[in-house]
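4.2 Preliminary Data

To establish feasibility before requesting continued support, the project team ran the inverse folding procedure on a target of 586 residues. The structure was first converted into the token representation described in Section 3, and no sequence information of any kind was made available to the design step. The complete token record follows.
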């Protein structure tokens, strides 16, 4: 390893890749902190004497102390494929923390984002990427090999070498394309984000296991009782068969016997049925059961994915959507409801520590107003007005003081669902979930027209993009320059600049906060939707609160302009729910 470090000194960049294993379950080999997971191989490559030279290190034989090689890797520009994965393992097992990173797969996704064929499985994998650029056929058979065995085979060693052999030739070609496509700022942001994501996964967030187990017990009891009630109601109405929620065909037959003629148990369809006059009581009972069941499944996922040290480390997908938005898996934190009980189990790391949570308020509405130059909405936002009340006042032609709660709710639905080109049909699906709202399709169509008249710049923005369809695709960019190719619909054309620019803002805020907090006793732990969550000592909470708010606003202004009316709600508490609730300290 020391000799490799000495030779690699002359290489401007070093390619890196890892091979991992889990002695209990192959599928858990991607979880660096799971029981039984290990780091087996470190492969490195560099340009030595003008040619690519590769080293494959069997860490089971050498140990995980990388010595001089580790020091060199922390200083050099590293080129990887799926960098966040490899760097998390290198941090966990070797204590290595890299800050200068280029991920060829992230670069490829930014370059080809949205391309029609990118939906094909493996399109952004290393094998397909090398085939596109160099016509190479990379054998990935050993990807699922036994990397925990006593001896590595020649095939495994060859496989590990080939995973780094071509990266240093690929990266410069991608950079040329990136500059030609004017994607440099976006790629730079994505590469700076990687170390922040690695730190977040290394740290994880503490889960209150006892509280979670109690909640699971409560939810199991509640779901059992709720479903028994559903079955009893069906039996009382002439359908005595016992069945489970997952048996959809039987459930649909039972509903038809009660006069509910639907072909799906989709929540929007059942919500619409619940609102019909004389709808059977069982529909409300099924709805109540579904809420318990969803939360129970989420709670069990939290148990399954919490590591042995009691911390949850979600797997962030850096480009989880074509808009550039982050997503998460194992588990999906985006689905944890703000108003549910499960956020209470995400806690700070013991006494004297708190979670500080910052959340952009009305982010997409503000973003769309800036992009469409809708001054009416921008004025409302700058004045700190209730924008949904103002919208209701306009579309119902009433003074704000005369607007009813139901009318304000319709104004809010209009703002969120008409913004990206939705119509009366979309509104009809959404109002089904509001028992007190009963407008007809015709009334909602009229509401849509009045909303467009109330916001003429939004109407002009919509009209400008209506030509886009399957026969007339286009490409769109965010304000930062992120690009999506092959947009085939009017609504996607509206969505990308808004949600994509918001994604750029969140990532910029994450990078700036992570870099500002380097070496400090506070750290970024989570991000979901428009939120950032930080842990710190309680005595530093106000300082961290101010830094987080300042950073989030600065990121918004960098993308949308310094006169954009941005609002960030920041609070702190002992757990995630408390930090966002009425008991949060501001």
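Position-by-position output of the design step:
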């Amino acid at each position: 390893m020391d000799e490799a470090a000495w030779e690699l000194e002359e290489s401007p960049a070093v390619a890196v890749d890892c091979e991992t294993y889990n002695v209990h379950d192959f599928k858990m080999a991607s979880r660096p902190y799971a029981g039984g997971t290990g780091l087996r191989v470190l492969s490195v490559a560099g340009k030595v004497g003008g040619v690519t030279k590769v080293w494959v290190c069997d860490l089971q034989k050498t140990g995980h102390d990388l010595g001089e090689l580790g020091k060199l890797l922390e200083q050099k520009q590293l080129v990887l494929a799926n960098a966040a994965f490899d760097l998390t393992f290198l941090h966990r097992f070797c204590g290595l923390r890299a800050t200068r990173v280029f991920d060829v797969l992230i670069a490829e996704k930014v370059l080809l984002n949205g391309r029609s064929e990118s939906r094909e499985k493996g399109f952004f994998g290393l094998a397909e990427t090398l085939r596109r650029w160099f016509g190479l056929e990379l054998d990935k058979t050993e990807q699922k090999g036994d990397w925990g065995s006593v001896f590595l085979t020649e095939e495994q060693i060859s496989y590990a070498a080939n995973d780094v052999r071509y990266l240093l030739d690929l990266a410069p070609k991608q950079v040329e394309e990136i500059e030609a496509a004017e994607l440099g700022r976006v790629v730079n942001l994505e590469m700076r984000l990687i170390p922040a994501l690695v730190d977040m996964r290394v740290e994880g967030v503490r889960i209150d296991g006892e509280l979670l187990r109690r909640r699971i017990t409560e939810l199991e009891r509640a779901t059992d009782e709720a479903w028994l009630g559903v079955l009893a109601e069906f039996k009382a109405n002439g359908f005595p068969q016992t069945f489970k929620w997952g048996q959809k065909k039987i459930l649909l037959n039972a509903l038809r016997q009660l006069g509910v003629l639907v072909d799906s148990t989709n929540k929007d369809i059942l919500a619409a049925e619940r609102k019909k006059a004389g709808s059977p009581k069982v529909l409300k009972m099924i709805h109540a059961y579904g809420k318990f069941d969803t939360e129970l499944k989420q709670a069990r996922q939290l148990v399954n994915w919490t590591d042995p040290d009691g911390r949850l480390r979600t797997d962030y997908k850096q480009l989880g959507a074509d808009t550039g938005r982050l997503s998460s898996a194992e588990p999906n934190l985006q689905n944890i409801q703000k108003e549910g009980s499960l956020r209470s189990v995400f806690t700070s790391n013991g006494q004297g520590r708190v979670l500080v949570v910052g959340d952009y308020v009305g982010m997409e509405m503000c973003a769309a107003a800036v992009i469409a130059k809708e001054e009416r909405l921008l004025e409302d936002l700058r004045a700190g007005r209730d924008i949904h009340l103002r919208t209701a006042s306009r579309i119902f032609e009433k003074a704000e003081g005369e607007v009813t709660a139901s009318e304000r709710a319709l104004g809010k639905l209009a703002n969120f669902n008409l913004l990206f080109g939705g119509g009366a049909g979309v509104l009809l699906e959404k109002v089904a979930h509001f028992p007190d709202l009963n407008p007809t399709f015709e009334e909602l169509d009229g509401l849509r027209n009045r909303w467009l008249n109330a916001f003429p710049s939004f109407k002009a923005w919509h009209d400008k993009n209506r030509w886009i369809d399957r026969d007339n695709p286009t490409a769109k960019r965010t304000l930062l320059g992120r690009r999506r190719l092959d947009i085939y619909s009017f609504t996607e054309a509206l969505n990308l600049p808004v949600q994509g620019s918001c994604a750029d803002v969140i990532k910029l805020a994450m990078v700036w906060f992570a870099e500002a907090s380097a070496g400090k006793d506070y750290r970024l732990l989570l991000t979901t939707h428009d939120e950032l969550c930080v842990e710190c000592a309680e005595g530093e909470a106000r300082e961290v609160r101010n830094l987080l708010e300042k950073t989030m606003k600065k990121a918004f202004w960098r993308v949308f302009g310094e006169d954009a009316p941005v609002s960030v709600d920041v609070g702190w508490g002992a757990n995630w729910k408390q930090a966002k609730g009425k008991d949060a300290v501001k």
